[in-house]
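Honest question from a wet-lab person: if I give you the sequences of every part of a complex, can you actually get the arrangement of the whole thing, not just the pieces? Trying it with mine:
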Amino acid sequence: MYHNVYFCGMENVCKICPFSSKTATPLNECDFEQLSENHVVVKFAKGDAIIKQGTYSTNVAFLRMGLVKIHLKGPSHEQIVRLVKAPAYLGLPTTFGDKINQYSVTSVTNAEVCYIDITTFRDLLKNNDLFSYEIILDLCRNELESFHRCSNRTQKQARGNLADVLLELSDRIFESEKFMLPLSQSELGNLIDTSRESISRMLSEFNGDGIIRVNGKEIEILNKKSLIVISQNG
Amino acid sequence: MYHNVYFCGMENVCKICPFSSKTATPLNECDFEQLSENHVVVKFAKGDAIIKQGTYSTNVAFLRMGLVKIHLKGPSHEQIVRLVKAPAYLGLPTTFGDKINQYSVTSVTNAEVCYIDITTFRDLLKNNDLFSYEIILDLCRNELESFHRCSNRTQKQARGNLADVLLELSDRIFESEKFMLPLSQSELGNLIDTSRESISRMLSEFNGDGIIRVNGKEIEILNKKSLIVISQNG
DNA sequence: AATGTTTTGTGACATGTATCACAATGTGTA
DNA sequence: TACACATTGTGATACATGTCACAAAACATT
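Yes, you can. This is the full assembly:
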């Protein structure tokens, strides 16, 4: 675990803007200056805790690089609620809520997080309509995603959910048919609400059926269509 | 099903403000005038569809009175993702997203909804920092709630989830130990991801154990402590 | 290389709950 | 009042998946 903290110069601040790649928010001169003076970048190694449930937080965290998992203590075990890929803001509910982190965020790959002073962030929201609008857009997208995820997870059975995750990793996270599993099998279990053993059995099954090829942590999707079918059959 | 549409005069507009009862947003004179000219109130009877998944929407809906359910088509059946009590905005993700409603909203009691023209609403956001801030706060709260709900629903078994819902109805929705179930048993099943039959059996069980008293749709909570224990045991 | 620790594979078994079936009861409507 | 239709109660059965147990493999550390 290493923390490499450094202050950003102007040349790095721009990395904050493309928060939503589709509709990047232009910041004006003044905004730039404010930001460059009030934020700090921290590097995290794979597995490091970026945000810890229950702790106090006074900064806004912007994930500028890497992949992280959002997880929280459930009634019976730790639950991973989603994977988040840079660029994205982390822990906004804490920023606008009671300042106590309601969930943990842990890096799944090496990651870089940019911390912005909370008052600077709020001023930015106040003075930059487009910026607030972006934040609202993002929160709305998350809400929809939560709804869909919730209805999927609870209605499908384990095979379907695992197929979903494999497709998500391939399509959205790594954008490749072949990738290294960023999570252990028990983490995958926590993500789709099933046991470690079931994950192991299902991966073997998919492998045996020629749908994927498993080689250690390396996964190659051989038959995407089958995966989609599995993911759709309840 | 009856629709009683009427335009609001100034005296009604104020009902829009207490969107978050804790931190009501003060609107200035100008805002008031804009709003009173650009919104319409519609009454819905119990069971009416307020928003229908898949339809196009150009208005912001503000639930000023009543109780509604948010539900969407899941892979195997309709799923109720949450109950929402007035006052609250409905369908914000649609407002800020692609204008196609991603979920349905149906009234569970009689309800009154105030429709605000979308551009008026956006202008309001632009010109009123506090207002945008309220919206962001609300969305953040929803995100947290979604996370917790998701981890509860998937980790607890049916008894625990039913206990949860009964407690929520008593504490948050009706604020009374005794209330009429606003949903049928199959709707309750869709809410906590279990079958209609299981709901029936569990209600009988709770009734037999003296934890609640069931009389038709009327429920009285006799032993809240037991319900809490049940809700916490996975 | 040797050793301890974490992760993975797989069998046997227990169990919560979905599903089917059908009766009973409640509710709205002509 | 009567009839159709939706809701609820309850038994019998099936099955997906959690849990336990233990071996094999992978990985890290000295």
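Two things worth pointing out. The interface with chain B takes residues 70, 72, 74-77, 79, 81, 92-93, 95-97, 102-103, 125-126, 129, 132-133, 135-137, 139-144, 146-156, 160, 193, 232-234 of chain A (CB under 8 Å). The two ends of chain A are 41 Å apart (CA to CA).
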